[in-house]
Amino acid sequence: MRPNRPVYLDNHATTPVDPRVLAAMRPWWEENFANPHSVEHAMGRAAEEAVEAARAEVAGLIGAEAREVILTSGATEANNLAIKGAARFAAAQGSDRRRIVTLATEHKCVLESVRDLAAEGFEPVVLPVRPDGLADLDLLRKALDDRTLLVSVMAVNNEIGVVQDLEAIGAIAKAAGALFHTDAAQAAGRIPLDVEEIQADLLSLSGHKIYGPKGIGALYVRRRPRVRLSPLFSGGGQERGFRSGTLAAPLVVGLGEAARVAATELMLDGGRIAGQRDRFLAALRAEVPEVRVNGSLDQRVSGNLNLTFPGPVDAQAIMAASPDVCVSSGSACSSAAVEPSYVLQALGMPEHEARATLRIGIGRFTSPQDVDRAAAALAAGWRHAARPEQ
Fold this sequence. Notes:
Residues 7-373 form the Aminotransferase class V domain. This protein is an alpha/beta fold.
C-alpha cells in the first residue's frame, strides 16, 4: 500500500482484486477475446473451456457439481433469480405453496424480492432475529407449514458479520418440505460451505466479495432432487435456460481464480484476518474503552466488527473526521439513503445508537500497520466528533 493512501477497512462492501485473479483475467481481454458461445471456431472453444474450468472452481468452493452453477452478474441478480424464479415456477405449476419466509436482517435485494412477490399472490413472512442477530430457530420452525415454498436466510450478515446455523436452518426447511436458499455473498471464501451439509437448494455468491472482479456472481441450483426456476428475462437460453446472455469470459475466469484461491487459503486467511481484527479492537478499546461490538461474538466471520461508539456522536461525523480510513456506516447497497441501519434496528438498537455505529471489514491484504493506523485515526475522529468545539 502506498504510504499516504487511506487504510481500506470496507471489505464487506467490496474486496480488492487479488493480483493472481487479475493475472488470470488479462489474457481473455488481450489475447483471446472470443465469445465463449462461439464454439464453431478454435478461439471460441478455448473461451468456452476457460469458462467451464472457472465454473468447476466455483462449484468446488461450495461442494457442488459444476453443472449446478449458474453464472450471473452478481449476488443481487442471483438472489432475485432464486427467490422470484422459484416462486413463479411453482405458481405456474399450480402449487398451493405460497409462503416465503426470510429474516428482517437480510440484504435489501432479498427483502425486496420477497416483498415484491406479495403483488403476485405470495405470502411474505419476515421474521425478527434475536438480539445477537442470529435466527430464532423455534420461531422459524413455527413459521413453516405445508404452505411454505421457500426459506431464504443469509449465511453471514453483511453488516454485523454473524454466521447463521445453516445446517439447522436447512434441516428445518426440509422438514417442512420447503426449498432452502442462502445468500452466501459474505460467506463464500470466508467460512467453509458445503451445499450438501447445509441441504441448500439454492445459494448465491458474488465475485467482488472474494477478491474477484465486480459484475460477476453465481447461483447454485440443485440438480438432485431437481430445483426448477422461471428465468427473469428472455434470450438465447444460455446457462441451462436460467440466465440468457453472453458470458463475459474474463470476469468468469476471474471468479473462478478467486474461488480457487479462496478454497486453497480459506483457513490461512481466516486465522490471519481474525488476528488483525483482534489487534484492531484491542487498539481501539485502549483509546475508546466504551466502544461496543454488535452481534454474536461466538458465531462471527473473522474480519467483521460492527462497532457502536459512545455518544452522543454520529458515525458520519466520525468518518468525516477520519479521512485516512475507509469504513462504512452500513451496507453499501443502502448507503444512498442516510438513515439508521435497519439491521441494527432489528436487533432492538435505539436510533441514536444505530447512528453512532461503524462497520469494519478487515481483509486478506490488511496489515498490522493498517489496523494500528486505523484504530488511532478512528479514536481521534471519535474524540473530534464527540467534542467538535475542542
